[in-house]
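Lecture notes, unit on protein representations.

Consider one protein chain, 196 amino acids long.
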Amino acid sequence: MPTLQAPHEQPNQPGTSTGLVSAVSRSPAYTFSKPNQGSITLLAGLGVEDDAHLGETVKHRGRVKINPHAPNLRQVHLIHAELHDELNAKGFHVTAGQIGENITTRGIDLLALPVGTHLHLGPAAIVELTGLREPCSQIENFQHGLLQACIEKDEYGRVIRKAGVMSVVLVGGEVKPGDAVQVELPPAPWRALEVV
């Protein structure tokens, strides 16, 4: 598995900044977009209350077909609002929740964080990052060209998947727009996020 450099070797140190929750979203049905909410409640070991992906075992329909008993590593989906800014600057129209995330953050480079990072959301909730979201055809169906815009390659030819990160809920609690997001890195050595 890919490893990340120590923070002092990286120009943008993962986990050294505090960000904000800019939006929260959920949908009780399997819809691609999730409507924004005034707040959401995270339930430990399960995910977002009243969201279709709530549960201990996998809820993503494609993955349920493969193994319905697999653990749900995708309980809470987070996307950085900076991705929306980038996509909108390219001519798309994307707002919080429209590409399926439960929590939209601002001020944290989510994609640079390692597996096992804890995000403290608001006064109580804590999620642990498990991996990356694989951009899929639903993104392309939402807006033509959006799938390609959510996948890039770095200078070494490695694929960068920008459609957000997945997590599990360690400690439940209410999360709402304006809440602080604090990053707690796991012990080194760090493993880069991979698709879950």
